[in-house]
Amino acid sequence: MKDIYAELISVGDEILYGQTLDTNSYFISAELDKLGIRVKRKVTVADNQEAMMRAFKEAEDNADIIIITGGLGPTKDDLTKPLLAKYFDSGMKLHEDILEDLRKRFAKRGRELNELNKGQAELPEKCTPIENKYGTAPGMWFEKEGKVFISMPGVPKEMKYMMEDTVLPKFKEIFKTPVLIHKMVKTVGIPESILAERLEEWENNLPNEIKLAYLPGLNQVKMRLTASGEDEKYLQKLIDQEVDKLYEQVGKYIYGTDESNLASKIGELLNEKKLTLACAESCTGGYIAHLITSNSGSSEYYRGGINPYHNDLKINVLGVKKETIEQYGAVSEETVIEMAECVRELFGADIGISTSGIAGPTGATKDKPVGTTWVALADGKNTQTKLYHFQFDRQSNIEITSNSLLNLVRQTLSSK
Amino acid sequence: MKDIYAELISVGDEILYGQTLDTNSYFISAELDKLGIRVKRKVTVADNQEAMMRAFKEAEDNADIIIITGGLGPTKDDLTKPLLAKYFDSGMKLHEDILEDLRKRFAKRGRELNELNKGQAELPEKCTPIENKYGTAPGMWFEKEGKVFISMPGVPKEMKYMMEDTVLPKFKEIFKTPVLIHKMVKTVGIPESILAERLEEWENNLPNEIKLAYLPGLNQVKMRLTASGEDEKYLQKLIDQEVDKLYEQVGKYIYGTDESNLASKIGELLNEKKLTLACAESCTGGYIAHLITSNSGSSEYYRGGINPYHNDLKINVLGVKKETIEQYGAVSEETVIEMAECVRELFGADIGISTSGIAGPTGATKDKPVGTTWVALADGKNTQTKLYHFQFDRQSNIEITSNSLLNLVRQTLSSK
What we know:
2 copies of one chain form a homodimer. The first copy, chain A, is α/β, with parallel strands linked by helices. The first copy, chain A, folds into 3 domains: 5-174, MoaB/Mog-like domain (Molybdenum Cofactor Biosythetic Enzyme, Chain A, 3-Layer(aba) Sandwich), CATH 3.40.980; 179-257, 2-Layer Sandwich (Alpha-Beta Plaits), CATH 3.30.70; 272-415, Maf protein (Alpha-Beta Complex), CATH 3.90.950. Helices cover 42% and strands 25% of the residues of chain A. Chain A is built from 16 helices and 17 strands. Chain A has helices spanning 13-16, 24-34, 49-62, 80-87, 96-108, 115-119, 156-174, 192-198, 200-204, 232-250, 262-272, 287-293, 311-318, 322-328, 333-346, 394-415; strands at residues 5-11, 38-45, 65-69, 92-94, 122-124, 128-130, 139-144, 147-152, 179-188, 210-216, 220-229, 254-257, 277-281, 302-308, 351-357, 372-378, 383-389. In chain A, the strands form 4 sheets. In chain A, strands 2-1-3-8-7-6 form a 6-stranded mixed β-sheet, with helices on both faces. A 5-stranded mixed β-sheet of chain A has the order 14-13-15-16-17, with helices on both faces. In chain A, a hairpin with a 2-residue loop joins β7 (139-144) and β8. The longest helix of chain A has 22 residues, at 394-415. The two termini of chain A are 49 Å apart. The interface between A and B is large, with 87 and 88 residues. β14 (302-308) of chain A pairs antiparallel with β14 (302-308) of chain B, so a sheet runs across the interface.
């Protein structure tokens, strides 16, 4: 079985000028990947004859499947259709059925077709039209010496419909593709370089069928394993074996795989142990609560949270002692301990967590520079604390504090 | 003045496989556009020697500026640095100052450099390093016959820092580009199609120097005006005139321009009127608090918030009447009214706001489908409420509820 390669061409000035984020090629990549078709390259070009013709030629030389999005509107700056006709040396043909369909759809909205719209029913003779349920420009399917060219509109909803309704089912029929299996292994609390060092020998001994990629983020590193070959069962076994080895070697940093996130993992652990959580956030200002409640079903284990931004609320609503804050300040170990213990009690949760820090850019003092952050976790028996010195901007300080505290919750629950 | 062209190269299997959305090239495009540098093409290639070397060559033939992101990590699958050294036929050089800086940064976190990290201080002789404040891989700046090659990490935060701190300022110095003035006008609460219809005549009469782009989001539409030419003063005047016209025609939907966000606008209004805010969030689970506290200085006007996820906390901590929840349910007008009034009182704020809804995908009842959402605003005299029926996924329902309630706060404060 030979590998099937695709190249994606996005057409449009708006993408090149940074006015539109190209989510089309992201969607198409992921869908092709599921079928085992490898996207070899993506190119974005301007609405410009020379650039587009060159992109068609390069893609044809490079891939088996060429998917073009954009440039299919009814106006003059939309060049994809005339240029594909030129590229395939094809005359144009009016599709009466498409015209009739357009006429009906316009009539429904009480409108008549104008010349521009009528033109959309004219397509290169050498293509098969692809139905566009949500718009007026049909897609086009060309075949040439075993290679397939697909052209679809740039409007995401129209493109998605065509992919799901026509393109992907036809690809499944035509192409025999290798089996691809992906596994994402997600770690927290270990930097990429240390992780890679610890795993060097394992990586060097990976079976030839498996490729590895590191995808780093804020205090998190994801590892993507991809197995490719012909025998799905065998590949799945290979992947499972390697994931087992990863758990053996760096298991304490792994919080989950594939779709799971750190907060959902904590949810699983809490459910498993029938425990509940509440949080008192100062510097993270609601972000931890947001991460937790972004997961459906979080009401099972999340009691609620409070972000008493002002000290009087830490005292009067949450119950921190006035003297503690006066003596040690809001950003102190003593204060986060009381915050975690108080929220645990006030909210009737098994575990209370808290944050207090200087997210910046203002608020620093001589002893406490921006990024100074205390967090605490109270479980009714012990209260743990951690002190961090982050050096990011406000938003990232908030994120990494949240990730770090959630990781502490994970570690604590895992060892219970 | 000749046009300056750029080509962007994103390196990474994870983009081609549809696992990572390429927001880097979107950001870079927009930033270059502001400088009047035209992005001619974007290419995404695999972590693969042949594909990368070909991309370098094509880009060099095609553009004046070549910007490469990704492939700079310390691990084996990161090829950008060795391949650029090969492309420029350059030996490697250890930068002692970078090594020393890495060592210090590691020491601060109580860690030692390993071999992989040390390798990051080694760069091709022919490049100038670009400082990476947020990560361990320096960027690289090459020049060759008037063309500039830039290589930066794929981690968005690190790339952005390098762009803003080094790359863009240097481009401004080196390249003489036309004067470009951008103004972003931000609206909330009006759909793009209606906004465009209202502004049709205005848009048709825009001066030739000004280009308009609509950038729609969740309940928000941004309009970007771009003036280009040679006379900065004249262009600024043109832009100001058109922005004035926008305020005349759709001013009540405009919440700000350029860097402002909806929550920071509310902060301004609260400061102006010397008022404070507190929020009680059920379905938005901390997200509104997060939006508010993401703005530095929010402690001036934000008292704090609570997200009593469970009904007993709405009753026992926040003070909603038990009978109200029993009779009308948590997702009801009666409950959000009490939540807003209670949080206002409990947190000692001038204005209290609240949310309760079914974010989904679970939790729907016969009368209350997913997306049913109540919000309230209490100012001590009146309590306003709004009912929405959103039809998005969980995350988007949370976002649009937050935006809608913040817009209600904005409207209320603006009319005070």
